[in-house]
Amino acid sequence: MAKLPRTAQLDKDIKKGIAWSVHAFTTFGIVAGFLALVAVLKNDAFTAFIWLGVALFVDGVDGSLARKARVTEYTPNFDGASLDLVIDYFTYVAVPALMIYWFNMVPLDFYFAGSTWSLVAAVLIMAVSCYTFANVGMKSSDYYFVGFPAIWNVVVLYFYLLDTGPITNFVTVVLLSILTFIPVKFVHPLRVTHWRSWTIPMTVLWAAMTLSLIISKKFPENDGIVETIEVWLFGLSSLYFATISLWRTFILGDKGEDEDEAEESKAEPQSHA
Question: Which helix (H) or strand (E) holds 227?
C-alpha cells in the first residue's frame, strides 16, 4: 500500500514533464522566428522563409500536442495560450513586417521616397495586428478566424513567390488591414471540422508546393514543366482555402455558430492558431 502514492506521484510527474516538453516545443517557435530575423538582416530571403516555415509548423501542431498532454491540468501556473500569442506576434507579424520594409516590397515612387511606403506598410501591419491578438473573439465557436487573422508571414510569402508589384502589395496590405476589423471568416486548416477530410490533405499539398517553389526560386535551374505543375497545385490549394472561407462567411453564416453552440463551453482560451 505504501508504494501506491509513490506510483501515482511518479505518473503525475511524468505527465507534468510531458506537458513542460510541449511548452518547450512551442518556445522553439520563437527561436525559429529569431533565426528568420537574422536571415532577413543578412538579405537572405530564402533562409528567412525556411525558418518562418519551421515556426509555422511548430505553431500548427503544438496546440494538438498541448491538448493531448493536458497542459492546463499539469502546468496550471503556466499560460500556454499567452506563450503562443507572444511567439505568434513575433513570427506572424513582426518578422514579416520587417521583411516588407527591409526588402522594400512597396517601393512606390510618389510623394515620398520609395522605402518610406514600405515603412508605412510595415507600421500598418504592426499596428492593426495588435487588435487581432487582443481580440477575445478572434475565433468563432467552430474555430474559424473572425476577421483577417494576421497571417502576414503567408502574405509576404505570396508576394515573394508571385513577384507581385509594389502597387499590388500595398493595396493588399491595406485591404487585409481593413478585413482585420470585418467579421469575414477565415478557415483554420487544422481545427475546423467542416470539410476536414479535404482540408488536411490540401494543407499538406499547400505546404509541400510552397517549400518546393521556395527552393525553385532559390535554384532557378529547376524551372520547367515540374514548376508549372507546382504553381498550379499551389494555386489550387490556395483557392480551396479561399473558397471554404467564403462559404463559411456568406453561405453557412450564423448557422455555423448555432451548430457548435453546445460545444462553446468547452473552448480553451483563444490563441492565434
Answer: helix 225-246
222-245 pLDDT tens trace = 567 878 888 999 999 999 999 999
Q: Taking Cα atoms as reference points, which of 136, 42, 139, 151 lies closest to residue 96?
A: 151
Provide the b/e sequence for 188-226 (b: ≥16 CB within 10 Å): bbbbbebeeeebeebbeebbebbebbbebbeeeeeeeee
Angstrom distance (rounded) from CA 273 to CA 133: 11
Task: From residue 245, give the alpha-carbon distance in Å to each of 157, 187, 188.
Answer: 20, 5, 9
| pTM attached to this predicted model | 0.86
**Domain segments of the chain as ranges:** 3-266
Helix count (H) and strand count (E) of the chain? 11, 2
Beta bridge partners of residue 61, listed in sequence order: none
